[in-house]
Amino acid sequence: MQKPARSLIKASDAASWVSCKRRAWLDKQPGTLAAIDPFTQLLSQAGLQHEVAVLSKLEKQFPVHKATSIEHTRSLMQQKIPLIYQAQLFDEQSGLIGYPDFLILHSNGQYQPADAKLATSENKKSIQIQLGVYRRLLATSLPALVFLGDGRAVELHDDLNICADEFVSGMKVLIESQQQPIARYSHSKCRTCPYQEHCLQEFESKQDVSLLYGIHGSVADQLADVGIVTIPQLAQSQTESLPDIPHLKGYKKKHRAILQAQSILSDQVIQLSPIVLPQGTWIHFDIEDNPLTPSRMRHVYLWGLLPPPHREEDFTYSWTDYEFRDYEGWIGFLKLLETYRTNYPDLILAHYSNHEKATIRKYAERYAMQKHAIVQWLLGEKSPLFDLQKPILESLVLPLQGYGLKDICKHPSLVNFQWKNAESGSQWSIVQFNRLQTESDEMEKQRIRDALLGYNRDDVIATHKLTLWLQQWIR
Ligand code: SF4
Fold first, then answer.
1. Is 116 near ligand 1, meaning CB less than 6 Å away?
2. What's the pTM?
3. Is residue 25 within 6 Å of ligand 1 at its C-beta?
4. Which residue ranges form the domains of the chain, and what is each CATH number?
5. In this predicted structure, what is the pLDDT of residue 4?
């Protein structure tokens, strides 16, 4: 049988299709094979490890045969092999192909498709589509099974059919189309997409309104219905003339969208109200965590702090190399905080976005420490925690596509603070930490540790620099 061509619809195309229709179309074009970045590689290795762990459990229940081709899968199915590993299913007529991790034989003679997924929710649309396509390829009424990253095995029933059918018909149209689908910029999706360069050129040359912070694809589509397609057109609009549309309702939001367009065009900050910062002794705080743990619970391996006088050498932290030391890292952080609380009764613990506070809450629950004195102080009414992103979002409109710490700090006409390691970032740090865990050479281990500490130290220095930069807007 011929090797499946790029024009075939693979069940695994669902991931791109759910994320962005243009990405799914580009995936099918000759010569557009996207390079695999280190973070995606890490995810796929972790996925493979999870699959092997599931396989070893299933091997205790069933004799297993590994399929090597589409024909071999068919032959194993005809032989009624109880468990087929790495099956390959193909329907020539519909051009549909799927690679379920497992096919499990049932007493009624049908095979049940099953996949091992790192995700911890069975409700992810791409998972539902993929499993729905397997059921379709098998023409089975048996529920599909997913072995999730948190250890649960969940059966998915007929609801899958609708999303699988929608995917198959949508992909057929995409594959036949000579034109790439119209797309909108999405700061979260496009930044990590291998086709970013290709698309960004087009968005920028058109001055597409979706490049603006807060203008999502659906908002951009609805603005287009009233003739607003470009950033200059939005910048010149009157708040009162914009229609109320979902995600852009009410005077405040519409006015902010117009100011956002004006800010980008002029590369100027627009102040909506004076910035208010609390008075006290500031300590800057940032965490690094690893989601790819054996338990699938995030392991905060680094709780980083920058106390006064906020020099590089003042950086301090609680660090643990492995998830089984997670508790030690948490307690180390609480002890540091206990000392700072004593030394600085007017302490302000500054962080950027809600992630740090939400993580403290999760850790308190994880270790049933909600009544711990430091936890109660951190999460109580007189909490020293202060989220620096809040006053920025409330008071300033910035000439940026995103309001993340790095977006603001790296911008040359804003904070203009550059991380020492230009490659570093949240995905980079996860890749490095996972490298550290498998590294046997102690010197290399230390080198990776130092790089991660340097990255976190720059994060807390960045929040300090941001605080200094904000002083000019306290008026
Ligand atoms: S860069 Fe953005 S618009 Fe382009 S394919 Fe990727 S996700 Fe879609």
1. no
2. 0.88
3. no
4. 9-176 (3.90.320.10), 187-266 (1.10.150.20), 281-473 (3.30.420)
5. 45
